[in-house]
Amino acid sequence: MRYFTSANQLGSIDEALAAAKYIKDNPFADQELGRNKTLLMVFFNNSLRTRLSTQKAALNLGMNVIVLDVNQGAWKLETERGVVMDGDKSEHLLEAVPVMGSFCDIIGVRSFAGLTDRDYDYAETIFNQFVKYSGKPVFAMETATVHPLQAFADLITIEEHKTKARPKVVLTWAPHPKALPQAVPNSFAEWMRVADVDFVVTHPEGYELDPLFVGDARVEYDQRKAFEGADFIYAKNWSCPGVTNPADYGKILSKDMSWMVDSEHMAWTDNACFMHCLPVRRNMIVSDEVIESPRSLVIPEAANRVVSAQTVIREILKSL
Ligand code: CP
């Protein structure tokens, strides 16, 4: 596997889930696979879960791990080709990436969307430079448009907690004070579309996700209608994806607090479980009562990040 960004790179979804179950039941069975292999994790943005879970996954596989926080201690990196580097950036990604590649066997990259230039973000400019110039397999630890390790962990969590063969899963937009990228809802939509679930997306008008990810999934603008009969509520904020109006890309179009998931919202569902990728703003996205309720899955969901990361890294190691 040269790079990992999406659901179809792990074979069928059933094969991916079976591999994840094997990892969960046998977390230390493949220590020889990673022996004398090094994972380099490169962070252009902050992280708690991705940093810890991916490192733990690599250690479970017997690997060595190096972590680079690009904005803390490294040279400031230029990412645009052709610029005169007379500013504060001392090194170009075009040299830095192959150098990083020379120190490791696999690279994980976290590089969020800038939310100012849709074409730049949706071209995955930074991630693709790692794929092109590192000479090593690269996997997404949340890039400008995708967060596959999160979506895979979400799917594993749904699989573990579902009580129906084909549960209803609702992705709902919720308000947030800051403009956030679309990577989490993009990947969640992509993975839910290939999973055996009844998938519905609900958000205010203007927040339509890119068709590349949401495809022909049902979009319901009435949040209450969307929640009716739901088995899983997945809350997330995202800024305007700029699908219907490119000029609005990355903007906050609504802070409507009536979209926050509280007990009244959960009462519309079929006793649904609550999910969120974390970190979450309490009493903006979700009420204290809902996130602390026995139906909240946010902690097991985060714990499954080790399983999703380990499944992906194991597949990459097998392909080396
Ligand atoms: N969900 C998630 O990716 O968390 P972090 O941003 O803390 O890594």
Quick synopsis:
The protein contains twelve helices and twelve strands. The chain is an alpha/beta fold. The chain is globular, with a radius of gyration of 20 Å.
Description:
- With 320 residues, the chain is of the alpha/beta class.
- Helix content is 36%, strand content 15%.
- It has a 5-stranded parallel beta sheet with strand order 1-7-6-2-3, sandwiched between helices.
- Helix 3 (93-102) packs across helix 5.
- The N and C termini lie close together (8 Å).
- Bound molecules: phosphoric acid mono(formamide)ester.
- Phosphoric acid mono(formamide)ester is lined by residues 47-50, 142, 150, 277-279.
Question: What's the topology here?
Answer:
Elements lengths: L2 E2 L8 H13 L12 E6 L5 H12 L3 E6 L7 E2 L12 E2 H10 L3 E5 L7 H5 L2 H9 L4 E3 L7 H14 L6 E6 L9 H12 L3 E5 L8 H4 L3 E2 L3 H5 L4 E5 L26 H5 L5 E3 L12 H4 L6 H22 L1
Parallel strand pairs: 1-7, 2-3, 2-6, 4-5, 6-7, 8-9, 8-11, 9-10, 11-12
The structure holds phosphoric acid mono(formamide)ester (CP).
The site of phosphoric acid mono(formamide)ester has 9 residues, from helix 2.
